[in-house]
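thread: overnight batch results

M.L. [08:02]
morning all. the overnight job finished for the chain we discussed friday. pasting input first so we're all looking at the same thing
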Amino acid sequence: MATSSKNQPGGPQHLTTSRGAALYIGAVLGPGLLLLPGLAAAEAGPASILAWLALLVLSGLFAAVFSALGRRNPSAGGVIGYVTAGLGPRAGLATGWMFLAGVVSGAPIVCLIGASYVTDLTGGGQLARAAVGAMLLLTVIGLAAGGLRASAPAQLVLVSLLTGVVVVAAAGSARAARAGNWAPFAPHGWLPVGSAAATLMFSFVGWEAVAPLTTRFADPRRQLPRVVAIALAVTTALYLGLAVATISVLGPRAATNVPLAGLLSHAIGAAGQDIAAVAAIVLTLGATNAYINGAAAMAGQLAHAAPGSRGSGPVLRLLAAITATGLLLIILYGLRIVSTAALVAVPTALFLAVYLGAMAAAARVLQLGARGTCRCRAGRQLAGPGRLPPPRQKRPPGVRRAPPGEPRAARCHAIAMTLPKRHTRSPPRPPPTRTG
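M.L. [08:03]
and the structure it wrote out:
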């Protein structure tokens, strides 16, 4: 899970390929990786690996689409701007509110992930886990209210920590893998593979972050394919490596809320639980702080705040909503009224709706852009040489001033539509000849 806090990370004016790839990887990876392999294995068993593969293919599609959107319209303001450009302002606002609701309902889940690793180390049941999760949530809310923000370098450090822990856990526990843990392959049938894929969708939110970053590359056409390829390769290796290790090493014990602690115990011994708990707390605090800051920026945008405004109204209302909603969900979890899978289903459904809207908008925006390019070329051929106005000449009547960031194809299309059609004249008929 990633939010717009990762969408606009700070950095130099021009991104190098390596730094851009690191930011792209950080947009997708998150603390959900500490929980979701166990949930997917609990729902579908070893067949959950099929859900991982399907979502990795879908992740590649998301990356390609949002990269194309960034090249087509680099001035767009994130996922709200894309949906607005493709489907209109109402759809853009609805998408923004759904995204914001997903962040509000997802923040307590991240806190419960960290709490699960703490109680796995210290002991305690589900009620104790809920109490620790509530304390983590209140801590993050207090830090956000005090103005603490996770900078881009801090986010990269968190991503590096998560990557290192996953690599050590998956590679170090490989000697304990057993081929017999893959049988039976689908103990609950094939339908649970779909529900496992829906659960895992929570880990693949974040590719909307790639589009705004395209303006920060010195040569996007050359760098962007390499960056996307590196990011896809790294995330695919991490996700598949952890999923395969969870099933191969843990076997029937893979259906747990703390799969990484089990793998680290096999990899480095008794200290594995301690390292997993510390890493989970750091990732929970850092990632949730980043989520809340990103959601605060989106809340200001939805509230029609002026650019650069630092009014505290939308932020305070957001923090109050996260606190009330988060504590309510954590209490319901502690009383065993809702399960972890049910909690994950709420933000997953919201983010899935956001992505479907973004994909529909992308199809329309990219299709219109292609038509505009064709119409621009046709306009040049139709008008002939010298008929299109030069850049500094007066615009033809009926052609509006292009707003900043409008694609050149759209301007060419508008100019071409105002030009008169060329008609080929037939040769004059010879005068009739008189006879006699």
